Amino acid sequence: MDVTNTAEKTEWDHPVQVTTALLSESVESEFGGNTVRSAEVTFRPGERTKFHIHAGIQILYVTEGDGIVATRDEEREVSQGDLIVFPPDEEHWHGNTEDTTSPFSHVYFLAEPGDGELTVLDSP
């Protein structure tokens, strides 16, 4: 068992972030050659990620506000309580809307082989 307290959010620069640093709290463990990560990420108004892909599955659970999740083919509005699943290698982005004054937060769960591989892509 691995128990980690993530009560304090920190800002950090991440290659997938479009605008300012991510506001996040996270935990990471390794199980049988797979790396499992989880973090709560808060997007301030207008913030979003770049298009990116993960080598493993990514699951988002919306904890606060309204936001957007998108693939190259589809864009969906999401809100508190929504669960989003991106299969391995699906190009996607997620973030807040430009016209809001409220933050958008989600917890992500990411299970990837090895150390995991994030590929940042060009926007369309």
Summarize the structure.
The protein is mainly beta and 124 residues long.
Describe the structure.
- The protein has 124 residues and is mostly beta strands.
- It has a domain at 48-110: Jelly Rolls (Sandwich).
- Helices cover 0% and strands 54% of the residues.
- The protein contains no helices and eleven strands.
- The strands form three sheets. The protein has a six-stranded antiparallel beta sheet with strand order 1-2-3-10-5-8, with no helix packed on it. A three-stranded antiparallel beta sheet has the order 7-6-9, with no helix packed on it. The chain has a two-stranded antiparallel ribbon with strand order 4-11.
- A hairpin with a 3-residue loop joins β6 and β7.
- It is globular.
- The chain starts with 9 loop residues before the first strand and ends with a strand.
- The model is unreliable at 1-5 (pLDDT under 50).
- It comes from Natrarchaeobius chitinivorans.
- Residues 40-100 form the Cupin type-2 domain.
Note the main attributes of this structure.
124 residues, mainly beta, Jelly Rolls, six-stranded antiparallel sheet, globular, disordered N terminus, Cupin domain-containing protein
